[in-house]
Amino acid sequence: MSRPGSVATVDLLIQDGTVDVADPAGGSAGRETKELTLPAGANDRFVDGPACRRIAVVDFDPATGLPLPAPARFVPARHSAVMSGSFPLDGDPTSPTTLAVNAFGTVFQTIRMFEGASALGREVTWAFGGEQLLVVPRAGEWANAFYERETRSLQFFWFPGPSGATVYTALSRDIVAHECGHALLDAVVPSLYDSGTPESIAIHEAVADVVAVLMALDSDALRMGVLARSGNKLTGANAFNAIAEEFGMARPGPDGLGRRALRDLDNTSTRESLAAARPHVLSTLLSAIFYDTLCSVFNARFAAELNSSPDERGGRPTPAQAANKALGTAHMILRQLLLRGIDYLPPGELSFADVGRATLAADRAAWPDRDATEEARQRRRDFAQRFVDRLIVERPNALDNRRPRELSLPPGRLVELRDSDYLAYEYVGRHRRTIGIPDGTPFTVLPRVDATKQVGPRTVPPQRELILKVAWNHVEPARALRGATSRVVPTGATISFRWDTGRCTALVTSDITRRRHRIARDDLLTQLDVQRLLQDAGSASAAGVGVDVSGGVISLARSHRLLHLEGWEA
Amino acid sequence: MSDLVVRAYNVGFGDALLVSIPERDGRGRETTRHLLVDVGNLLAGTANSDDVFLGVVGDIAERTGGEVDLYVMTHEHLDHVQGLLAALRGGVRLGAKYAWLTGSAHPDYYEHHPTAKKRRLEMQVALDDTLRVLQAEPDAELELMIRNNSALLPPGALGLSTADHVDHLRTLAPPSRTHYVDRSTELGRKHPFREATLRILAPEPDTSAYYGGWSGGARLTAQSVGAGPARPSRRTTTPELQTPPAGVDPGAYFDLVRSRRSRLRTRIMEIDAASNNTSVVLEIEWRGWRLLFPGDAELRSWRTMSELGFLRPVHVVKVSHHGSHNGTLEELFDDVLPRVSHDRRERHALVSTCTGSWDSVPDDDTLGFYRARCVLHDTRDVARGSAVEIVLPG
Questions:
Q1: Rounded CA gap, A33 and B246, in Å?
Q2: Which regions of chain B are under pLDDT 50?
Q3: In terms of Cα–Cα distance, which of B265, B239, B241 is closest to B254?
Q4: pLDDT tens digits, A179-222
Q5: Which of residues 205-224 of A touch B (CB under 8 A)?
């Protein structure tokens, strides 16, 4: 029997430092008590900081910019055999302790949600290679927050709000979850960090926003508060589709107008209407599709709950109960759709359509259409149609994926495929045409992923699967720049297998070599060059976007940084 | 027939360049006119001090009769501006018939250039932020970088008043003959030269063009904490934080701390580069010789000059930015010093620099480019206070 994991009790803000759905007038911030639980059997504990094996807070002095001792103390509970306890707050809503505990606790919960059985079903390996993600709740003065792979950190800044009161981004659940979402996505699809199109960069932002939505939905108090205020509806402005309300209200948008939040996922944008948008705004096109999916699942479930048969005592749920239960289910389905879909994203540059394709592939891998309920099949049709309605693809079947029978293996071979690089390369080499690797093009097989995922309600047994990803470079002509006339575009494919049968459940390849993708890459490079934001990719201290030119071939690096560079951060 | 003489004084890390140009009047009589480009040094390290200027400025005053014909202040960096006031304080006075100061030094410049003003304010905040960090934890290299840009600091910060030195240069020549110049300035009647032709290739009238890569953004310290930037030093961290707090991965911690410090340096480098790029780049033509004095122009300024088609082969070039790698743009090198002299005349480069002030300056590879094309004269080859000379026969 494995040793139970340590538990740390923390009080976390439900929304922002000043915004609380239960108190629309502002002025008080709602909190809820959460138990942070380390995995059973893990050789890990909570210590001052807060810190544990995979997350640690590092605080800096706002007066000098220099590092400070741990701002929060871990107080062990009496007689706790596994060193459980709490990180008590000090009563000051903006003290270093409060900021540290809030940021740490929210990051901890976001990781737990992301890696949970109904999402990835495994612990991720950070893209930066180390074991510990640093959390900096007082990184400095700036209206910004970011994940930075190079420093293995999430950095949260503060800035003066319109009333003069300081806005601390470390106090925003949305912002903390969002930045943590970047770190987690980087762990799963590290190649997105060096994307070459605004759309590919925007995927990071969209996923991070939906992670923030998922974390908002994780709060019972917030769920009930939103439903109570909206009359059990998810349409219209609410705390789920408004990302970072306090931040957004404190800072006008790029057009100079006031706004209710940093980003709004309740929108009707299309690819055409956002054709010239920068990654942050462009991302709302994709994140809105996931939000729309949440709403439609909620609506269907809410109606079903209201019309459900009476229980054994003849009682029916009240509308509020039905809505809360429906939202809980919609939350679970959205979490499974998004996070399992991420696991199926091919390496390299990606388009929004690729995200849709991977999402549906992962969903069908768990439940093929023939085994799925009509509700699930309808959900898939609706999901694909949203990509059509928003002019991302022309037809719903553009998001279909293949499951070539010849890629299947006897179940006993999956262990070898997982553990042996030699066999993995041999397998991919043998199937390179089926996978779509051009003849003569070298490829790289990434470490295989063995994950066990909850694919439905807890009454359904979890499924174990093996995911294999292979990466290669596509070289295309490029608009002449810095002596280069061609460009490297990383691309790839994902193949998934059911562990129990060895059957190939999905082959997902990306679609990023069309003319419009090439033009988008040309335009982004030109734009960055004109703005003089390109720096030598080999420069270790470079704060901008990296560019490498070698043998007349140009490639981009660290484009993820555009998301927090001056002028590009909104 | 007299010779044109370029004298580059060894003043430590800084510039002091006297160009003595013989000119014939309408009746064939020859008069030597003197053009002085910058006098200053970094006032940092053992190799830099005010003392050197007593001798250097004294020598210049003796050669020019106490008044140069034209003084050019290329840009507002300490190592280019501080020498004349320092000499005056030591009792050695030098005046000028005409004075040119870079356009952005005009007292009203930023009122008429709002974008540049916005960037300048951001840079002042960034410098102030860096100064706060510096006061809590000394960092010699960072301090050196700040000192050089102290024109952006309030008077007295770090014990410097760069603005006083610039103000002194405003008074070298009569107000009617003191001009703030950029590449669009009409130069007629703004200098006394008759035979030599002067051309200004840079800076751009709107210097915000030089801030393209400004990363701006984060400040590590709170602007609302404390009063004013130049607060007394105080160390608030505990000595134990030389090591990470318990529970924090040491590698990750040290990478993070170093990255924050590196970000400060990057910002100061950007500020430094933007100011360097405001350098007046002066081309002189005289009796078939062409001389180029680019101040500390960096890559962005060189690119702009190239895009405007301003760069031409020269016979004498001052190596920009004291031989730093970022003062010479390799891809444009052929425009200024083609592999073979365009008219077979001899060619010279001179570098005014000092070893030990900056780790990477001068850059040996950069100086190697010049050595491969022409005779390189180096102020380090002569004693402190003395000058290397380039003589061009008339």
A1: 26
A2: 225-240
A3: B241
A4: 999 999 999 999 998 888 889 999 999 999 999 999 999 888 88
A5: none
Q: Is A535 part of the contact surface with chain B (CB cutoff 8 Å)?
A: yes
What value, to the nearest 5°, has the Cα angle with vertex B93 and ends B88 and B96?
Answer: 120
Judged on CB neighbours under 10 Å (0-12, 13-18, 19+), A78 is exposed
Instruction: Provide the pairing of β-strand A463-481 with A484-498.
Output: antiparallel
Tokens of B218: 């984060």
How much is the average pLDDT of A249-260?
A: 64
Closest-CA distance of chain A to residue B379, Å = 31
Report how far residue A298's alpha carbon sits from residue A291's, in angstroms, rounded to the nearest whole number.
10
DSSP string, A459-501: TSPPEEEEEEEEEEEEEEEEEEETTEEEEEEEEEEEEEEETTT
Global ipTM? 0.88
Q: Which residue of A has its CA nearest to B299?
A: A532
Angle at the Cα of B261 (from B256 to B264), degrees rounded to 5? 130
Could you say which residues from 145 to 174 on chain A have a Cβ atom under 8 Å away from some Cβ of chain B?
148, 150-153, 157-158, 160
Cα angle vertex A80, ends A78, A83, to 5°? 110
Quick: pLDDT tens for B335-386: 999 999 889 999 999 999 988 777 778 999 999 999 999 999 999 999 999 9
Q: Rounded distance, CA A567 to CA A179, Å?
A: 19
How do A59-60 and A55-57 pair as beta strands?
Answer: unpaired
DSSP summary character for residue B233: P
Distance CA A48, CA B39 (A): 56
Residue owning tokens 């003065």:
A141
Burial class (CB in 10 A: 0-12, 13-18, 19+), A190: middle
Number of H helices, E strands in chain A: 13, 22
